Amino acid sequence: xxxxxxPGVRAGLSMALMAAITTTAAAESAKDTEARNAAAxxxxxxxxxxxxxxxxxxxxxxxxxxxxxxxALQGWQQRNxxxxxxxxxxxxxxxxxxxxxxxxxxxxxFAETRKAEFTGAARKALLEMFPDxxxxxxxxxRIVAATEEGLYDYRQxxxxxxxxxxxAQASAKK
Length: 174
Prior knowledge:
There is one protein chain. By secondary structure, the protein is mostly helical. The protein is 77% helix and 0% strand.
């Protein structure tokens, strides 16, 4: 968690989060809560990474290269968005719970910290995808091929996918 400059905010947010989780997810075990939070963070970070690489970077090429990137992105979204939505809802639920338990300022701080964590992890992943910092047709072709093969799909990550599936199933029942 990032320091916000206010004394005790980190400890306060941690306590508020624990109280909020206890209140909002009373039926969850600590292990389930940890797994769901980790899976949600993974899903959001992966989505940011795929959207940035294929949509904003590779998707801006004109002609076949851009079309292939945008098509690969659409395919990825069709395969994965049903798992992303419950992950986003989870973070919103936790933010609302922190806000209800600790107040508006702590809720905003919690949300900003999560946003910074997700975007920071996505930036790190993008540096690995575009190691030299340059967006080239060759690099984009490699990313498109990997996406079309499903390498960035949530189901390829056994440590998170069962939890994402359970979250999606629970969300569909609501």
